[in-house]
Write a structure and sequence with these properties.
203 residues, alpha+beta, 7-stranded antiparallel β-sheet, 6 helices, globular
Length: 203
């Protein structure tokens, strides 16, 4: 298995219980709660990066919301939501630039046109390389393709990847719980596609 080495850095206390990751339902406005999955995942990536490089720990729901509000201005949903990987990539890079971080975000899109999609090996390598840098990866799922993924048209953080029974199994977090899906099957059957955004230190 390859995964983030410190999942506890993204585990916050909510109602005196551990909660895996953050939730867009914690936003203050109805619009943010409806459309805020992208900035929520972006905030988790930034939180992990800040803890890893600066020792800035976010341990409570209140602290998480403060960061989510900050990241909202960098990864703001458009009409129809944040349905393009380039918007996540651009928002994270603007944040890194503004805060003088020697980090970069890069995307790998899975378009609706199957002939234009990256190969399974390319996608698997992209995820593997991102996790080996020890950062969560933003996953945009526009269509679940029959896999056990919570929602269509939704961003979630990937925290691990492993080989199991001949399949590449992805672990993601959403709504405080772990979810698992086959990368091969998703790439084969997703109709609208989606994509991935990873971060890494600049060389």
């Amino acid at each position: 298995m390859i995964g983030i080495s410190h999942p506890e850095w993204l585990t916050v206390t909510k109602e005196e219980k551990p909660f895996l990751g953050y939730s867009q339902e914690w936003y203050h406005t109805k619009h943010q709660r409806r459309a805020g999955c992208g900035p929520t995942v972006g905030a988790m990536i930034i939180a992990y990066e800040e803890m890893k490089l600066k020792g800035c720990n976010i341990s409570t729901c209140k602290d998480a919301v403060n960061l989510m509000d900050q990241i909202w201005h960098y990864i703001m949903p458009r009409i129809g939501g944040l349905y393009k990987t380039k918007w996540m990539e651009e928002g994270l890079n603007r944040y890194f630039s503004d805060y003088h971080r020697r980090m970069k975000a890069e995307k790998l899109s899975v378009p609706i046109c199957r002939f234009s999609r990256p190969s399974f090996c390319d996608v698997k390598c992209f995820i593997k390389e991102g996790l080996l840098q020890d950062f969560p990866i933003a996953f945009l799922n526009l269509h679940r393709g029959g896999e056990c993924i919570p929602y269509n048209w939704h961003w979630m953080p990937i925290v691990a990847m492993e080989e199991k029974q001949g399949q590449t199994i992805i672990t993601l977090w959403d709504e405080g719980a772990e979810w698992y899906f086959s990368l091969e099957k998703w790439l084969e059957k997703t109709f609208w596609g989606g994509g991935f955004v990873r971060i890494s230190p600049m060389k």
